[in-house]
Amino acid sequence: MKSLEAINRKIALKITSAVGTMWCAYVFMAIALISLPNALKTHDTIVIVSWVAQTFLQLVLLSIIMVGQDVQSSRTQEIINETHFASLSEFELAKEARAIAQQELRELKEISREVHQVLRDIEGRIK
After folding, report:
1. Number of domains in the chain
2. How far is CA 34 from the centre of its chain?
3. Is 34 within the bounds of a domain?
4. In this structure, is residue 98 part of a structural domain?
5. Which of 58, 63, 95, 105 would be 24's cystine partner, CB 3.0–4.6 Å?
6. What is the pLDDT of residues 58-115, one digit of tens each?
């Protein structure tokens, strides 16, 4: 059963990839335009509107919408990647800042010990 699902997914992916191109939109437009002269010959508004809505728009816009969604998806993925990279960079900067702060804290503790030692030495000389 899983192999059938895998085959169906591969077929669906190939069809979606093919239909979601501007070339497919051009082919669909050519196919739709074949029936345009007959629709116009009827001089019937309903037939002409039906041709535009049901034949041309549905057929051609299907591919164009898919292309647009792919473009939007690609841009969204770019933004996600840029945000991820920026976040990683900020994280590295934060790690560096923390390491510097820890080193400064160690140095301050050492200076504090030295100052306390000097104060003890001075106090010992005064007594």
Report:
1. 1
2. 39
3. yes
4. no
5. 63
6. 889 988 999 999 999 999 999 999 999 999 999 999 999 999 999 999 999 999 999 9
